[in-house]
Design a protein that fits this description.
The complex is a heterodimer. Chain A is of the alpha/beta class. Helix content of chain A is 33%, strand content 24%. In chain A, the strands form two sheets. A six-stranded mixed β-sheet of chain A has the order 6-7-8-3-9-10, with helices on both faces. A four-stranded antiparallel β-sheet of chain A has the order 2-1-4-5, covered by helices on one side. Chain A is globular, with a radius of gyration of 19 Å. Chain B is an all-alpha fold. Chain B has one domain. In chain B, α2 packs antiparallel against α3 and α11 packs across α12. The radius of gyration of chain B is 18 Å and the shape is globular. The model of chain B has no long low-confidence stretch (mean pLDDT 92). Classes of the chains: A alpha/beta, B mainly alpha. Chains A and B meet through α2 and α3 of A and α7 and α8 of B.
């Protein structure tokens, strides 16, 4: 279980640039839940992920995994149990390294990065099996540098790399936003498959309302640092897209976009 | 012949320095000015070992490497832990090292003529006899440079080496892998300055002296070599980048030698270096990481 408890975050307090991101924000995510998060620009949805992952510090509050408070842990320590995919496909992979080297790097997560050989040849077939279901032909191009791949291919690889070792949480930060609609669809289906296969607790921030409605078992809409809508279980299943859309449009207009 | 040998000798010695600069400039994307201090630091350690401590000259190689690695670690700590900007961390270390180098070496100029060194000792002189004698320096340098190159190639293929490549490429992923990216940078800077210091160690023994001024512009020579090597030899696919960098250094030294041969005095050498570097930058259009 992941719990954000009374989180407060204020940028530049007392100055004209003061930006109150969260005030007393709380959220509880049960194990195995697949949460979709939507919201207007500046609503704090990506900031929430950054708070969980330790990319930004908080002023007050607790971040609990089970009973343990991780709010003082450094970002890289927290990432040991988190898999994360970013909006920018280039953030999840190393462009100057080959597909094989990237997969080997990710495969070693949680273990020591010592002076043993970087590529474990015995794993190559496993990597090929992992890549095959993508239907992108990457399994035959293991020695190609990732920088030469398309955004969609890189994002698919990022997703595989983020989830190939045991993780407790999968954090998806608008991971389809930079892709064309068709590729986004493929990545979204792949995401759903991986989440279901691994039963990993997932938080997905998305701009795409349809994805938020279609995928996951809980939907949260955020606005000005608060969860203004939170539906799970049957409520989520029977969600009315029109209704969601109208709320979303209203808060978006309020924000002027 | 003597000129050719001198170019090869110096080219390969500075080739080791260039390997270090390659790590910081190309892999870590870190403009590391520590090099101007760590190159003479290796030389200072070496003359100290040979002239004052009387230890076997061969020991100077690992000790100089470790000394340089320590210096690189300090630059890394200043940058990562004290959050000083990369360029400034290097400048702090470079400036401080000037005094430390004088202290370690004993003075600004320390000759070690007629003392045993890696090019001139009973063992070496026993192996290289007759016609081979004039090639002994270049052969020994070749062996050490190749050893440095293959060790670096090997390191880059290890898990730890993968992380080093990753941190320069995309440091977000290093965090995602649950590893402290600052630590990886410190390791990279250590290895880089270890190589630079090793280069200074060999240089002092080839010159049979230590001079405090050898550090000035060392980073420029390294950068020029790296840029020549990586841009000029980009198309030569059978060469590893480490080999390209060493060849780049030899080409660079050849250019300088040509300029000197054409009658430009030794006093003008830094100006020649600067102009050559500018020409190389313009030709290669190296807009930093423009891949």
């Amino acid at each position: 279980m992941l719990e954000l408890k009374n989180i407060s975050k204020n940028y530049n307090p007392g100055s004209v640039n003061e930006l109150l991101l969260f005030e007393d924000f709380s959220l509880r995510v049960e194990d195995g839940q697949f949460v979709s998060v939507v919201g207007s620009n500046g609503s704090g949805k990506t900031s929430m992920l950054n708070v969980i992952c330790g990319s930004i510090d908080i002023d007050a509050g607790q971040i609990l995994i089970g009973d343990a408070d991780i709010s003082k842990q450094k970002d890289f320590v927290r990432h040991r149990r988190i898999g994360r995919v970013y909006q920018d496909p280039s953030k999840g992979t190393c462009p100057a390294m080959t597909i094989l080297e990237n997969l080997s790097l990710a495969d070693n997560k949680g273990r020591k990065y010592n002076l043993k050989k970087g590529v474990n040849k015995a794993r190559i077939n496993d990597y090929k099996e992992l890549l095959k279901p993508l239907n992108m032909g990457l399994e035959d191009r293991l020695s190609v540098k990732v920088g030469a791949l398309s955004g969609g291919q890189r994002q698919a690889l990022s997703l595989l790399m983020a989830t190939m070792t045991p993780i407790d949480f999968l954090i998806l930060d608008e991971h389809t936003a930079a892709l064309d609609p068709k590729t986004a669809e493929i990545i979204m289906e792949l995401t759903d498959r991986i989440v279901k296969e691994k039963h990993v607790t997932t938080i997905m921030v998305t701009h795409n309302l349809r994805y938020a409605v279609e995928y996951g078992d809980r939907l949260i809409m955020m606005h000005e640092g608060k969860a203004i809508l939170d539906k799970s279980g049957d409520e989520k299943k029977n969600i009315d897209t029109e209704e969601i859309m109208s709320i979303f449009n209203r808060i978006s207009v309020e924000c002027g976009n | 012949m003597a000129l050719l040998l001198s170019v090869l000798e110096q080219g390969m010695i500075y080739g080791i320095l260039a390997l270090g600069v390659y790590i910081t400039y190309k892999i870590l994307d870190f403009p590391d000015l520590t090099v101007d201090g760590s190159f003479p630091f290796g030389a200072a350690i070496t003359v100290r070992i040979i002239s004052k401590l009387g230890l076997p000259a061969l020991l100077s190689l690992p000790i100089a490497f470790l000394g340089g690695a320590f210096v690189g670690m300090c630059t890394g700590l200043i940058h990562v832990k004290l959050k000083v900007r990369d360029l400034l961390s290097g400048i702090v270390m470079m400036t401080g090292l000037y005094t430390i180098n004088l202290f370690v070496a004993g003075s600004g100029y320390v000759p070690i003529f007629n003392m045993d060194n890696i090019f001139d000792n009973d063992l070496v002189n026993g192996i290289f006899k007759g016609g081979l004698y004039q090639f002994k320096t270049v052969i020994i340098i070749f062996v050490i440079t190749m050893a440095a190159k293959y060790l670096l190639d090997w390191y880059m293929s290890t898990k730890s080496g993968f992380l080093l490549r990753a941190v320069g490429d995309n440091d977000t992923i290093v965090t995602s892998l649950g590893v402290d990216k600052g630590l990886v940078k410190i390791v990279g800077l250590s290895i880089a300055n270890g190589l630079v210091s090793l280069s200074g160690c060999i240089y002092a023994q080839q010159q049979r002296s230590f001079e405090i001024s050898i550090g000035t512009g060392a980073v420029v020579i390294g950068l020029a070599s790296v840029i020549i090597g990586t841009s000029l030899l980009k198309k030569v696919t059978f060469l590893r980048v480490t080999a390209s960098v060493i060849i780049g250094s030899i080409i660079y030294k050849a250019c300088v030698a040509l300029a000197m041969f054409a009658g430009i005095g030794a006093n003008a050498i830094k100006l020649i270096t600067a102009i050559l570097f500018l020409i190389i930058l313009i030709i290669s259009k190296d807009k930093k990481k423009a891949e």
